[in-house]
Amino acid sequence: MTADPAADPAPAPLPLAGVRVLDCATFIAAPYTAAILAEFGAEVIKVEQPGTGDPFRRFGTMTDRGDSLAWLSEARNKRSVTLNLRDPKGAKLFRQMAREADVVCENFRPGTMEKWGLGWEDLRAVNPRLVMLRVTGYGQDGPYAQRPGFARIAHAVGGLTHLAGMPDGPPVTPGSTSLGDYMTGLYGAVGVLVALRHAQATGKGQMIDIGLYESVFRVLDELAPRYAWEGTVRGAEGVATLNACPHGHFECADGAWVAIACTNDKMFARLARAMTRPDLGERFAAVADRLAHREEVEGAVTAWTRTHTRAAVMEACLAEEVPAGSINTIADIFEDPHFAARGNLHRAVEASLGGREVVVPNVVPRLSDTPGRVESLGPELGEGNAEIYGKLCGLTDEELAMYRKKGVI
């Protein structure tokens, strides 16, 4: 795989160079943590089931290589080894690798790694400096600990799904994406970096325990304090919000949509000027007036946007510094000059796909001196077996062949 052809042929070392991560998790949350670490220089070894690998390889649009586009994007910068953790010989090899690692990422149900002799106590015994990230649906303890969990379930249990959708409609999953997985992966990365800093200072590793629903619950602004304060159960607010007006999504004459957010009186005054409706600015100058006459205010904004193209609405809003943005499809994003200028789309030529270009989201966040990078897309299954087992476990070619024959790798 060839990275961005404009990239420096000898790029500077990244800040996490020298950190070794064993990623034996599946799908998105904990593997996303490992991918973030890999973007900033960590050596990430993806440990997968022999023969089948991570089921995420088959999630989404498949490529000619037999892996999905989602896999190519989200397993970036990783090496792949195959290992049967259920086999005692496989568990022994994993413990050998853990001795030489800094981080382990896993997402099996509580007790599963312990059953294989690979739990927290087992691994810290061979490497006291080890940091272990454990992601599950509900955390390592509590009455729901053994329940299976996915992002959609986390959105529901964590309180987000109840807030999504139209007020008179069913609750929906925001964007039908695995948002809770990615959020948990971000929190996992924060936890790992904090724990690594502690290990560096003290020589002691620690275990990080995250339930998917907890990441979702953490980002619901005033939901918890408001309920405790006055008993309010907030529900779905559709395309608007109850606290500001106009503050929502508005259709334009060409069928495209814009988002407009007027959270204070000055912003609404600007919008009234953009609409050439000074009367609205005078009649509804205060937020209380706008909230009391929400239907009339939002109706006037809708009538305006529906008589102009999205480009015209955006031009008028931006001229008056009204907070507004296009509601982009992915096709819009690929044509957006700001995405291009910021380098948000990383283009890679993938040799294993016959040199075809693959476009994936670029690294976030951007660091001034040591920016992360995408050096490779998701690896083929077991491509690193010989090199990695030889380096970390000292296996010879004959031993590799024996382990392969027995289904251990």
Automatic annotation (TrEMBL):
Keywords: Transferase. It comes from the Bacteria. Gene3D superfamilies: Crotonobetainyl-coa:carnitine coa-transferase, domain 1, formyl-coa transferase, domain 3. Coiled coil: none annotated. One of its GO terms (molecular function) is transferase activity. Pfam families: CoA_transf_3. Signal peptide: none annotated. This is L-carnitine dehydratase/bile acid-inducible protein F.
